[in-house]
Design goal:
The protein is α+β, with helices and mostly antiparallel strands. It has one domain: Alpha-Beta Plaits, CATH 3.30.70. 27% of the residues lie in helices and 23% in strands. The longest helix is centred in the C-terminal third of the chain and has 14 residues.
Amino acid sequence: MKYLYAYPELCTGCRECSIACSLTKFGECNPKKAAINIVRDEFERFEYPIICMQCEDAQCQKFCPQNAYGKEDEVIKWDKNKCIKCRFCVTVCPYSAITVMDGEIIKCDLCGGDPKCVKVCSTNAIRYEEETHELADKRKTLAKKLLGKE
């Protein structure tokens, strides 16, 4: 299975990935309408992309009262037709990878296996790679860091 992997040490905070995402999904260059967000840590002086981790035990899927989230080919996908826009998924996502803009739920679906964010990232800070033991450990380490558990 291929996943998105973030390499925060390479991220410059340019937001090319967010713009590509919003352009692909909504037809407009608006980083606020992207399924990938860049977070700035003013104290540590770095920026890094927040991406959906496609969790094994996905909280969005587990707690959605309408079962609007399903797993298809190991990708957690949101079903607009089942969603009542209660935004509970936004609340329970431990990585803040699901957002809402103009009443629209925004969550990464890996662009059907061809993520546009990867194609435009000039520093290679976001990669779409086949999971290995090393990459799985990296993803879990980053997840713990984001959750403040490391």
